[in-house]
Design brief:
Blueprint lengths: L3 E8 L4 H8 L5 E6 L26 E7 L5 H15 L7 E5 L4 H8 L3 E3 L2 E4 L12 E4 L12 H16 L4 E5 L5 H10 L2 E6 L2 H13 L5 E4 L6 H6 L2 E7 L2 H6 L1 H7 E13 L3 H10 L2 E9 L2 E8 L2
Parallel strand pairs: 6-7, 8-9, 8-11, 9-10, 11-12
Antiparallel strand pairs: 1-3, 1-4, 2-3, 5-6, 12-14, 13-14
Helix pairs in contact: 1-2, 4-5
Length: 309
């Protein structure tokens, strides 16, 4: 087990990405999340133009980095001060705390239960019990980054995929921004298509490649920046595209998706909140894709789109 430290500052949602960049050189992992606050909640449901990236404008956010060695407070405070000056605001206080020496992956594994959605069960290696008859079993390590099935978007996509497979037997599938590969692997184990999984992050590619081996799935797993990849182009048109990413990239890539789907082909899009539906759908409708189904889990949404014949 490795000793770690937590570095944190409090900032507005708009300022948070700047402070995230300031903490990046000192951190092995970074996150931004909404801070608890006693201030009255004056905001309503935001329109897409009110988002900083894809983070809701919270009253306050915590920007948090995890360091693998004792942090240099002076250097960190200088970096935060420079970030604050670029924003023309007062530097936030930097807090540094030592994280207890706990095997967090073991803790997660001990508590993570199997997730069953539609035709699929997603489990960690520590779960040995067989799936129920008729349920497709997927082993995804709980300690792996980029999602292991517990997030509402993944659940919504698995539910949407179950519905698609009742209507369609896709032979050529693309999992774009695959993360652990759970969606592509689910489709592969259900119908054994020609499967291509891609992600912009090289670490995710390695995780997905290992997951394919563990689940005995034949798949090509490649690093790619969105649709900008020769192999993605060579494999099209696709019967099914799975893209659990974020609202803005999905919107920007609507034309690429429409051109890559075969007539009658479908796409399952997720990674955004329900009030961003019109923001995501508008460019896809403009490119001739129709909404076939919406699947909501909590505040998160998955949209099933279909290209006309």
């Amino acid at each position: 087990m490795t000793q770690t430290w937590k570095i944190a500052v409090t900032a507005s949602a708009i300022s948070s990405p700047t402070y995230e960049a300031a903490l990046e050189p000192f951190s092995i992992a970074l996150s931004i999340y909404e801070a608890d606050t006693d201030l009255p909640k004056t905001r309503g449901l935001p329109e897409p133009a009110n988002w900083a990236g894809d983070l809701w404008l919270a009253e306050a956010c915590i920007v948090e980095g995890i360091a693998a060695s004792a942090p240099n407070r002076i250097a960190i405070e200088q970096a935060v001060a420079i970030a604050a000056a670029s924003l023309d605001e007062h530097p936030p206080e930097v807090t540094i705390t030592e994280v207890p020496d706990i095997d967090w992956q073991a803790e997660v594994l001990a508590n993570l239960q199997p997730i069953e959605v539609g035709r699929f069960r997603v489990r960690g290696r520590h779960i040995k019990s067989p799936a129920r008859p008729g349920i497709i079993d997927l082993e995804i390590e709980a300690g792996a980054a980029f999602g292991s099935g517990e997030h509402e978007t993944t659940r919504a996509c698995l539910e949407a995929l179950t519905a698609v497979l009742k209507r369609q037997n896709p032979r050529r599938v693309l999992d774009l921004g695959c993360g652990t590969g759970v969606l592509g692997l689910a489709a592969a184990k259900a119908v054994k298509p020609n499967l291509l999984m891609t992600d912009i992050d090289g670490r995710a590619v390695e995780v997905a490649r290992l997951a394919a081996e563990i689940n005995h799935v034949r798949a090509k797993v490649r690093q790619a920046n969105g649709w900008q990849n020769a192999e993605i182009t060579a494999q099209k048109p696709y019967d099914l595209v799975l893209a659990n990413i974020l609202a803005r990239p999905l919107r920007a890539m609507a034309g690429d998706l429409a051109r890559a789907l075969k007539p009658g082909g479908r796409a399952i899009l997720s990674g955004f909140l329900y009030w961003q539906e019109s923001f995501v759908m508008a460019p896809h409708r403009a490119h001739g894709l129709k909404l076939e189904r919406r699947t909501r889990r909590g505040d998160w949404l998955a949209l099933t789109l279909r290209r006309g014949r």
